[in-house]
Amino acid sequence: ETAGWYSEPIETLEDYKGLKIRFAGLGGKVLEKLGASVTMMPGGELYQALEKGTIDATEFSMPAIDQILGFNQVVKYNLFPGWHQQFTAQYMLINKDEWARATEAQKALVEASCTAATTRGLAEGEYKNGKVLAEFQDKGVQADQIPRDVLLKLREVTEEVLEEEASKDADFKRVYESQQEFMESYKVWDTRAYVPADL
């Protein structure tokens, strides 16, 4: 995901104040704390809302999908990174009784199919997005990074929102703590295993 499509660039925290933006979930709560006017609307209404100025900005998906919706035709700033959502997970719900009746082979087939679909989706997205961004440049779209100081503040406010949500919901707290433990563990690997991007 990206940080969204904007009619004007985000250069300072002040740029969020009064910004009319479609932004989902916890990321929307973060932007509200920074003074944005956050709304939700279906994806099919976003082009018209941007075109008419009903909203100044929207977050939606990755460049390959956003171009299909034509956001680049009405606003010219596509900002990165998707600080609020690095990955979109897909879910498959199966009735518990039906799942209990499934054979082990059927369960394994469903699990393997879901893993394959996720892996393929990630790979295709990584492949397509670079090409789409190159095309955006030719169409006058500025694909820019949010400034580091703004990203640091977004992280700080995100942590506040997550702590607030965890204090109100035991399930949220359990998942949040599990994710925090994973991040600490993964950091040991991540900081050593990959060639720095600037090399």
Automatic annotation (TrEMBL):
* InterPro entries in alphabetical order: DctP_fam (IPR018389), TRAP_DctP_sf (IPR038404)
Supply the PANTHER family for this chain.
Answer: EXTRACYTOPLASMIC SOLUTE RECEPTOR PROTEIN (PTHR33376:SF5), PTHR33376
Q: What is the lineage of its organism?
A: Bacteria, Pseudomonadati, Pseudomonadota, Gammaproteobacteria, Pseudomonadales
**Record keyword Nucleotidyltransferase present:** no
What keywords does the record list, in alphabetical order? Signal
Q: Name one Pfam family in it.
A: DctP
Signal peptide start-end: none
**TM ranges:** none
Q: Does the keyword Signal apply?
A: yes
Tell me what this protein is called: C4-dicarboxylate ABC transporter
Q: In Gene Ontology terms, what is a biological process of this protein?
A: transmembrane transport
